[in-house]
């Protein structure tokens, strides 16, 4: 299967990229780099893609396992190298679960399945960054 994305220059430092979902995405540099800051930053988008990919896995498993979770968020904290080309050499991914009746073992298994088996973006990140995974439970 092939993914084909078209990214069109809008002038100055702005671009618009399409997506198989039918929704478009604007990318722009910040004012410090000659842009207007009216779009998303490419490297940060990679972190959103990572969290989104894994989050979809975990949400699907929460549903399949019939787990009670009031709230779920993913914090993605990445270290950027100093030298050009700058890239993420280490990434910490924190899975935060909130609820009154959190089944910690099953939620940990859902995270592990995403991290180790299902998430393709995670596998791509593994090729260039050291990953640290944390699962944090907030009981109500």
From TrEMBL:
Question: What Pfam families does the record point to?
Answer: OsmC
InterPro entries of this UniProt entry? KH_dom-like_a/b (IPR015946), OsmC/Ohr_fam (IPR003718), OsmC/Ohrsf (IPR036102)
Q: Where are the transmembrane segments?
A: none
Q: What SUPFAM superfamilies would the database entry show?
A: OsmC-like
Q: What is the name listed in the Swiss-Prot or TrEMBL entry for this protein?
A: Osmotically inducible protein OsmC
Q: Which organism is it from?
A: Flagellimonas eckloniae
Q: Provide the taxonomic classification.
A: Bacteria, Pseudomonadati, Bacteroidota, Flavobacteriia, Flavobacteriales
